[in-house]
Amino acid sequence: MSNGGVKEIIDEVIRKYRVTVFIRPGCPHCLGAKNIVRKYIGRVVPQAEVCFVDIEQQADSRAFQNYLQLITGAPAVPSSFINGQFVGGQQTLRYLHTSGQLTDMLQTTIKR
User: Domain Glutaredoxin: where (predicted)?
Assistant: First the structure.
């Protein structure tokens, strides 16, 4: 898969869902990020507006990781996006969760 194809796929997923988290199996930080987001599903954000993308399940996982690094500046997953904006990894999600800011961010809907 070309990087152009990867860019289109990633950009579309980020645009389509209110919450997108790119993860890798076996990554404890990815599991932590996923668990934080799951606390809000059904309570603050509908399941249909949340997407977890396992980059290892993609045809070219290295290209996925490279493009994510390009757009986020972060060298590894998890990479979390809310309303199309990169917010960070597990540590940032945990901070936003404990401070109450994550609820506000998830309740804010932008036109896609």
Answer: 19-87
